[in-house]
Amino acid sequence: MKRNSTEPIQITEVCLRDGSHAVAHQFTVEQVRAVTRALDEAGMHYIEVSHGDGLGGSTLQYGRSLVDEMKLIEAAVEQCSQSRIAVLLIPGIGTVHELKQAHSLGAKLVRVATHVTEADVSAQHIHFARELGMEALGFLMMAHSAPIDVLVEQAKLMESYGAQAVYVTDSAGTLLPEEVRARVRALRSSLSCEIGFHAHNNLSLAMANTLVAIEEGATRIDGSVRCLGAGAGNTQTEALIAVLQRMDMHLGIDLYKLMDLAEEVVAPIMHRVPEINKGSLSMGYAGVYSSFLLHAERAGKRFGIDPRDILMELGRRKAVGGQEDMILDVAASLHKNQ
Ligand SMILES: CC[C@H](O)CC(=O)C(=O)O
Ligand SMILES: [Mn+2]
Q: What reaction does this catalyse (predicted)?
C-alpha cells in the first residue's frame, strides 16, 4: 500500500472502553488487569479504559458501571510496562475533575469526543489536558452526519485548541470506503496535526474503511480485539495487525500474542459476540450510534416494538450520542401509534 504519510501508525485498543457498551459496563478489575497485561505484553501502543460513554458515564441514563472506572484505570496502569493508558471524555458527561483524577492515576492520553458539529465544547478539556502534560486528541463522532466542509471546519477548531490528532469517528459504522477516503483526504490537506480513524463493523466495512484511512494518511488507528466494541464491534485488532504485516507494515505488535489474548482472555469475558445481525446492521444502514444497540433492544422488549423500527426512527431523527433518553421516547411513541 502506498501511504500518504510518513508518520508511524499508532494503534489504540478500545475493547476496554468501546467494549464496555457490549458488556453493559460490567467489567471487573480482574478482567481489566488480565486484558491490559496481555495487551502490554503484545506491545500494544495505547489501551483505552473508561466507561463506554467516557469518563463520568456511569449513570442511570448510560448504564452504571459495575466497578468505578477510576479503579479500572488504576488497575490497567499497574499492568503496563510499555503500553500507555488512554481515556475518553465527552464534555458534559465527563468534566475536568475526572480528567485530573485519571491523569493522577497514570492515564497519558485523552480523546475528547464531541458530536461532529460541536467541536467548540472541547476547548476547555483539550487545553486542560495539554496543561497536565497529557496527549490530547479530538474525536469527532458521527462523522458521516455532516458535510465534509463542516467536518474540516470542526477539526480545525480542535486543532486550534491544541489537539495533536483529530479522528474521523464512524460511530454508526455507516461510512462507505469512498466516504472515508474523502473525509480523511480533506482533513489531511487542511490540518497539520495527525488524523485518526475509528470504525464500527455494522456494514462489514470496518477493515476496508480502516485500510482506506491508512492509505489516505491516517496514523492513529483504533481496533478492538475479538471485535469487542459497540454494535458489531470495531475493526478487529488482531486481524488488522495480520493484514498490515501482509502489507509489510510492522508496528512492533506481536501477532501471536494478540491472537492468544483474543481467544484466551477476551473471548471468555464477552457477554455476547458482537456480530452483524439485524440490530447492528440496522444501525449501520440507518446511521445510528452503535452504543444505542442494547438500549434499543431493551426498549423494544419493554414496549413490544421491533428494535429495528426504533433504530430506523432514531436514524430519521438524527439522534446524537447523549440522547439515550430519546430511545425510550421513540419506543413509547411507536407503541402508542401501533
Ligand atoms: C458514546 C461514546 C462513543 O461510544 C464513542 C465512540 O466510540 C464512537 O462514537 O464510536
Ligand atoms: Mn466506537
A: (S)-4-hydroxy-2-oxohexanoate = propanal + pyruvate; (S)-4-hydroxy-2-oxopentanoate = acetaldehyde + pyruvate
